[in-house]
Amino acid sequence: xxxTFDTVPETALAWxxxxxxxxxxxxxxxxxxxxxxxxxxxxxSGDGEIAGSVSGGCVEGAVIVEAQEALEEGEHRxxxxxxSDGDAxxxxxxxxxxxxxxxxxxxxxxxxxxxxxxxxxxxxxQAVAYEVRLxxxxxxxxxxxxxxxMRMDRSGFEEDGQTFVSIHNPPLRLIVVGAVHIAQxxxxxxxxxxxxxxxxxPRETFASPARFPDVTLMHDWPDEAVAHLGLDARxxxxxxxxxxxxxxxxxxxxxRAACFYIGALGSTRTHASRVARMKEQGFSEEEIGRIHGxxxxxxxxxxxxxxxxSILAEMTAVLRGRAG
Length: 324
Fold this sequence. Notes:
Elements: H1 8-17, E1 22-32, E2 41-45, E3 50-52, H2 60-73, E4 77-83, H3 85-90, E5 97-105, H4 112-123, E6 128-133, E7 139-142, H5 147-152, E8 156-157, E9 163-168, E10 172-177, H6 181-192, E11 195-200, E12 216-218, H7 222-229, E13 235-239, H8 244-256, E14 261-264, H9 268-280, H10 285-288, E15 291-292, H11 304-319
C-alpha cells in the first residue's frame, strides 16, 4: 500500500467509467533512495490528468507518456527508471535510485470488474491483496492471504520474480477516549504517521473544536461511540481519561474486537485495579494481556508531548511486530 491511504484506484475507476480512459501505474521494485515505496500508485487518464505519485515528480512525465501508449495497445508495461542524483535532490532526496513501474490499462490489462471489486473492498475496510503474474497476465484479489505482507503493509514480488503482490490495507485509525492534554499532542502526531483520528469524550468542554481543530470529535458515551465506529485489526484504541466510568466500557469493547493496539493511561497500581475489573467482567488473562498499561514505551517521558511520543512509538512497534 502507499504511504498513506489515497483514492488512486477509485479515481482510475471513475475516469474509466466516464469514458476518459485510465491506467494504473504501480511502483513494483526499488533500489537505492527511490522517492516512493513499493506499492505507491499513480492514476493516469487518457487525456493526461494524474492522481497520486510514483516518484515524487522525477519520472511522472515519462510514465504518463508510457501509460497513454499502453492504453492504445491494451497491454501492461513494465518500466524501469534511474533517478539521477540531481533529479533526486530536486525533490528533496539526498541521492538517486532506480525504480520499476508496472503500468496497467483499466478495462484491458486490468479488468474493470476486478478494479471495482478492489474499490468495494477498500470502501468496506477489508484488507485485500491484488496479485498479478507478469508472465501470463493472471490477476486476482485475495482476501485472506499474505498475512506477513498484510501486517507489514509490504507490497512486492514473490520469490518467483513474476508474481507481484500489492497490499491494500484499510487506513490506520486511532480512537482516543479522553480529550486530555496528551490527546492534544498525540492526535496531530498520529495524523502525520497516517492515522485517521477520532477523539471521544462526553465532556464537551474537553472535546471542543478549539482544543482539537480539524479533528473528528464524538460526545457520545465511549461504548456507544466505539460501537458506531466499529473496531478492527487496523484500529488503535487509546484510553486516557483515568476514569473507569469512561475508559472501561470502551476497553471492554476493544478486548472483544480485533484492535491491533489497546493502551490505557495510568500507574502500575491503576493498571492492577483495571486488570482486576476486567477479570470480574469475565475476560481471560490472555485477553487482558493485550492491554498496554501503563501506556507507552518506557523512554522516561515527561509531560504530555513526550508521553504522546512514547504512545505512538509503542503503537508502531506493535503494528510492525517489534513489541517485546
